[in-house]
Amino acid sequence: MWQPQMERLADEFRVIAMDLPGHGVLKEEMFQLERSTERAAEVIDHAANGSALVVGLSLGGYIAMEFGARYPQKAAGLVIASASVEPHGWHAFPYAILSAMMNQLPEPWLNRVSRRFFVTAYGERRAQPLVAPGFFMRGGAAGIRAVMKMRFAPRLEKYPGPVLLLNGARDLGFRLHEKKFLAAAKNGRLQVIPRAFHLANIDQPEAFSEAVRKFANSIAW
């Protein structure tokens, strides 16, 4: 899912896309928020000399906030995309239902539905990097359940470095608390990408990539 950014930013930066527990090559490892942040720290130590700009979208955005609270010295900055809502309260109810469906319904059926959704939304060519590796719904369900147990504005408040909240203009459900998150960030800024939904990096890849580039060039490494 990060292929558009890796292609666009490789001219200036080394871009590393990692798999989280419950995802990709680590799909057999049960997702845990703490283990995900440990995994990110391990990758940064091994591949980035101990410090990197951490970019996370959706579930990855919540992990980025947790990472900044636990390992502030390893994060030159945080880009938190499509994750500007506290995942609790009435507005979390649809995600609780989604998590239950992802965990209980037959995976082949869920995979077919997911593939059809992405191909319909983005077209065959743009959707191919998303659908080709396949899906692992059980890992995604575990991720949703994990973040719904926590509050993240206090985690963001613990991180002293620069923060970019990057949201799609049409991603209304995940923008509910963006002002609260902006206020929690010690050194934060907010940018909204026009005509973008939840997967803003896929909806508007050029605008998303350039926002990351501009932010990366504005921070101390």
Structural notes for this entry:
The protein is α/β, with parallel strands linked by helices. It has one domain (3-218): Alpha/Beta hydrolase fold, catalytic domain (Rossmann fold, 3-Layer(aba) Sandwich). Helix content is 51%, strand content 12%. The protein has ten helices and four strands. The chain has a four-stranded parallel β-sheet, sandwiched between helices. Helix 8 links the parallel strand 3 and strand 4. The longest helix has 25 residues, at 107-131. It is globular, with a radius of gyration of 16 Å. The chain starts with a helix and ends with a helix. 37% of the residues are buried. The model has no long low-confidence stretch (mean pLDDT 93).
Describe the structure concisely for a colleague:
The protein is of the alpha/beta class. The chain is built from 10 helices and 4 strands; from the N terminus they run H-H-E-H-E-H-H-H-H-E-H-E-H-H.
What order do the helices and strands come in, and which of them pair?
Layout: H1 3-9, H2 33-47, E1 52-57, H3 59-70, E2 75-81, H4 93-104, H5 107-131, H6 137-147, H7 153-158, E3 162-168, H8 178-184, E4 187-193, H9 200-203, H10 205-218
Parallel strand pairs: 1-2, 2-3, 3-4
Helix pairs in contact: 1-10, 2-3, 4-6
